[in-house]
Structure formats: C-alpha cells, structure tokens
Amino acid sequence: MLTPDQIARYQRDGFLALPDFKSADESAALRARAGQLVDGFDPASSKTIFTTNEQLRAVDRYFLDSATRSRCFFEEEAFDAQGQLKQAKALSINKIGHAMHDLDPVFDAFSRGPALDALARDLGLAEPQLWQSMYIFKQAGIGGEVGWHQDATFFDSSPISVTTFWFALEDATLYNGCLWVEPGGHLGPLRERFVRNGDVVTMEKLDATPWPDSKTAVPLEAKAGTLLVFHGLLPHYSAPNRSAHSRHAYTLHVTDGRSVYAPTNWIQRGADLPVRGFV
Ligand code: FE2
C-alpha cells in the first residue's frame, strides 16, 4: 500500500505519517473502550505511576505483570501532597498497558487487519509480531513529559527490527504534547537497553551519543486518524501537556519474527498468550 516514494522517505527519515489511516468511528470505538477499562479500574489496587524521568522507580510487580495484562497507570502529577487524586479518576490515568491487543476484542479489532499487515510488510516486517499495546491519554493539564528515548531500548532484537505504530486518536498539536523526532536519527546507535533479569530491571548505557536538541528535532503534529510509523532507533520525545485538551494516542510495538527477540526484554510471552501478527 505504500508508494516507492513513501518507502524511500521512511528509510531516509525513520518515520512516515499516514493521515486518515483510521476512521472517526474506529477511533471513537477505541476511545470508548478505553474509557470503560478506566471505569472498571479500582484506584485502590495500585497507585503506580508511569514516568520516564525516573523510569526504574516506577518498575514494580504491578508494572512487570502488565506485560501480559491490561493495567492502568496514573499520571505523575495526578496526586496531591496527601496522596489523593486532584481530579476525577478518568482524568488522572497516564496510560493503559500492555496486552490489550491480545486480551480485549475492541483493541484486537483496532490493532489488526489486512491494511496494517500490508503496511508492516512494506516497512520490512516479513513476520510481524505484536508485543505491546499502550493507550496513552496525555491528560489535559497534567499529561507527563516522555523524555527522549528510542523504542528499541525496550524491544531489543538481533538485528534490531522493532517498529512503532502510533495512532493519533485526537489531534496531536504543539500545545497538547505532540511527538518530536530527529529526522534520520534512526541511522545512529542504540543508546540504552532496558534489561530484565527475573524481577530486576536495569538500564544499560550503550552509547554516549547525545539526544537531539532544538536544532535537529522537529514536531510531528498529527490529526486524529493519522498513523505515524517509526523505526525503533528513531529518537523521539513529547512535552508535558499544559493545554486544556487531552492528546489520546494508541501505540503498538512490532518486531520481525525473523530477528531474534532478546530473552532479556521485559515483555516475554509464553504458550498461554503467544505473540501474534496483524492477521
Ligand atoms: Fe517511545
């Protein structure tokens, strides 16, 4: 489905925007289902937050078990000094992760199909394997920053094959924390590796190449329905959302089954929930 020009741009820049990939109805269905999952979430069950600023602090049993479940994580700024939510629960969740695509029929339907399968193949994923789904709320006012990183840090394989599918469910703008990327930055090295040994997770420093700055980074504003695909080595970032508008997005992380998926990746699948492709 991609043109030769689109494939060439992807290979040059490390990312590609595909406007109107999802219909308004499809996005609305996923948003509604995410709302139901949050409604059913008991905040007393966990106050685990998701923050990339102190990534390892947020790693606990609740987080590790979410590799094969659907779990809600709070925004870092959701609580006051007394530990109470500052706003309604539905406006306090940072994300839901990380296996909804295999556990929930609505997420499954959004995450799979012939169009995505064809796209994956055009991007070089001969045997797509969907390891992770995340529903990201980027809440109005308190949506947290996601610091510069490369997704291959979390999905190591030999050779590196992880590719990110990032669906805008609402308009992503400069004001509500759209993605920033470094065009061509996927041609650089992997800087860090998130390594799991049992229940212990560490971040290994691999390369001292600095992260992009305002001279090399560009914002990727995206209308609702747009699919951004990007290479696992592409450095990307998103600012805090201080605006009055949320910035919901949904992501899938996909490797090529021909590459060797590292046994030290934090998400592993067993025979009870085998990793699957787009169809
Ligand atoms: Fe990322």
Q: Secondary-structure map with pairings?
A:
Elements: H1 4-13, E1 15-18, H2 24-39, H3 61-65, E2 70-74, E3 93-98, H4 100-103, H5 105-111, H6 114-122, E4 128-136, E5 146-149, E6 157-158, E7 163-168, E8 179-181, E9 192-197, E10 200-205, E11 218-220, E12 227-231, E13 236-238, E14 249-256, E15 260-261
Antiparallel strand pairs: 1-12, 2-3, 3-4, 4-14, 5-13, 6-15, 7-12, 7-14, 8-11, 8-13, 9-10
This protein binds fe (ii) ion.
Residues 149, 151, 236 line the site of fe (ii) ion.
Description:
The chain contains six helices and 15 strands. The chain has 279 residues and is an alpha+beta fold. It has a domain at 4-32 and 105-261: q2cbj1_9rhob like domain (Jelly Rolls), CATH 2.60.120. The strands form four sheets. The protein has a seven-stranded antiparallel sheet with strand order 1-12-7-14-4-3-2. A four-stranded antiparallel sheet has the order 5-13-8-11, with no helix packed on it. It has a two-stranded antiparallel ribbon with strand order 6-15. Strand 9 and strand 10 form a beta hairpin. The longest helix is centred in the first third of the chain and has 16 residues, at 24-39. The mean pLDDT is 94. Fe (ii) ion is lined by residues 149, 151, 236.
Tag the structure with descriptive keywords:
alpha+beta; Jelly Rolls; 7-stranded antiparallel sheet; 4-stranded antiparallel sheet; 6 helices; 15 strands; globular; binds fe (ii) ion
Q: Which structural class fits the helix and strand makeup?
A: alpha+beta
Helix content estimate:
10-25%
Number of helices: 6
Total E-strand runs: 15
**Proportion of residues in extended strands:** 25-35%
Distance between the termini: 16 Å
Average pLDDT, to the nearest integer?
94
Top-tier CATH class of one domain: Mainly Beta
